Amino acid sequence: MKIPLAFKIILSSLVTLGVVGGGVYVYSLYHTADAAVASVASSGKLTDILKAEPLNGEETGRVNILIAGNSTDDPGHSGAELTDSLMVASIDVTTKKISLVSIPRDLWVTYDGMSTKINAVYLSGGMDGLKSVVQEVTGLTINHTVLMNYGALKNMIDTVGGIDVTIESDDPRGIYDPMIGFSVGNGVQHLDGTQALLLARSRNDPTYDGRIAYGLPNGDFDRQAYQRKIAQALLTKITHSTAIVNPTTLAKLVQSLQGNVTTDLSVGQIRRLYDLGTSSTLSLVSIRTDATGGSLLADYTSYDGQSALVPAAGAGVYSGIQAYIVSQL
């Protein structure tokens, strides 16, 4: 959901902190930001933001960053450690084109000799295990990883005063997901952090009490689409709002990342990523159909009755998916 966005938020906040305000207040904000940086990045301190470091794999001309999102900050959410948001940000270093490749959370994969949905790999393999599986599925070499929880999204949206998202459902009533108690009408809607988080989680799963969901007929694929809309709306709000240069707002924005985002990127590498992103173009890639409209995925029922997805060519056969991804980068 969210990754070039998250990095731009981190960098916009930290870089602006260095040039806005003055005196004791900025000194205090510096220490707040420095603590946040220490909890987010793999190494470095706030002042390292002034000097970019090469990204891993940059010498090849392409850098791939795995982004995973879970709900570990929400103890009331079942399956909180499942990485229900998965994508790869593939960056062409020369053209500065960033391709966001969404990976269906229900994709049936094999890890460490066991078959499971890809969103469960993190439970046993951590980010290293998830990285190895994503490399096998996409054919892309993963150079960096980022793990975010949904609290980061909610907090950032509330900090900037909410976002505007256009709801484009085929149902004239809009979207309704009774399983999480969320509804929203069609058209431009102003959402606070809680509402945006509910939209990001909506899928129209079947209910058990007769209530009928509507507005998201494609389930998880529709959810992925609205997650991307939320990320784009938040980025627009941040880059076009004068409030972002307010030291108080910046401090809150930086603090919202603390404890909610972890990455193997150093502070200097985050700066390099920001530099690449300031003049980048964004492309969204969904692993669903190929360029001719042919299906890349097929429904699958696991041995224990789980509804899942496998490549159309068969479980574990990723060549078609890999070829499509390459054609879209």
TrEMBL record:
The chain crosses the membrane at residues 9-30. PANTHER family: POLYISOPRENYL-TEICHOIC ACID--PEPTIDOGLYCAN TEICHOIC ACID TRANSFERASE TAGU. It comes from Candidatus Mycosynbacter amalyticus. Belongs to the LytR/CpsA/Psr (LCP) family. This is Cell envelope-related transcriptional attenuator domain-containing protein. Keywords: Membrane, Transmembrane, Transmembrane helix. NCBIfam families: lytR_cpsA_psr (TIGR00350). Signal peptide: none annotated. Coiled coil: none annotated. It comes from the Bacteria. Residues 83-239 form the Cell envelope-related transcriptional attenuator domain.
